[in-house]
Input
Amino acid sequence: MQTSTSDTPTPTSLRVHSVHALAPGPRLIVLGAVHGNETCGTRGIERVLGEIDSGALALRRGSLSLVPVTNPLAYRNHQRMGERNLNRNLYPNPQPQDFEDRIANLLCPLLAAHDVLLDLHSFHTAGEAFAMIGPPNNVGALEPFALAAQEQALALRLGPRRIVEGWLDTYAIGVQRRLARTAHPDRAQLLSTDPRYGVGTTEYMRSQGGYAITLECGQHDDPQAPEVAYRAIHRTLAQLQMIDAARPEATAAIELLRLSEVIDKLHPDDRFVRPWSSYDPVREGQAIGQRHDGTPVLAPFEGQIVFPNPAALAGNEWFYLARRSARDLGP
Ligand SMILES: [Zn+2]
Output
């Protein structure tokens, strides 16, 4: 359902709530509505703000920044993006060209001033919540990282049993393929073929010496998603010992998946053979979709579908494929 967007002016500011405990401790930032139609984080943050206002929740150590609506233009429009996807190609830009560039110029220094990011999202099709983590510790060029143990420990305690890794390197391979296909890219296409295009909030946070988790709290309209978001904020505050609460237990029976392939929609008439949900299993060679000219799109290996988006725009990611990961997430 689309409501009118012309009767409210274009947002001109970003709202950030900050609470500083008198005792030192971690600096946590929580983001909602980086994508404007993903409002579970906004609702979860509003509930936590209410608890802070009423005195029901007391910050004991460190500092907490809450951003209920990180992309106000997309949120006002009830859409994923304003002028572009805020969660891609996220860098400070000395010559901002669009709304998201201007938000990035506020958001990037804000992220850099914190130690830990919890970024609350939701997804398009039905399915259970999951967390996305960064790479293992490494000194590579794409995403060097040294805080995997802390990030993993938090991911194990946010609530959801499913954890996904491998976003940025899978995305970088997809970008190379996209670039090879695109002869004369316009600016939007240029952005989507930049190897840095895969850098969103969590990748930027890691590049600035912090660690970060994206929590996908459920389907966009799932009434449970705001509850998942709210509980994850509390669990993070407890894990970081910023409130007087016991550290949460690690979730039992964790399923760790590695994103291994991203497949773009190439034509507006490319279509799925059936409505897929995230984590639907596929066999090697199974038909997933059909290109506009009738060519079948087959699963290259046995795995699971992630983020299927029937409404994807041509030239953008249509779905991902994941498989089981052997990475040890620790205690
Ligand atoms: Zn999102």
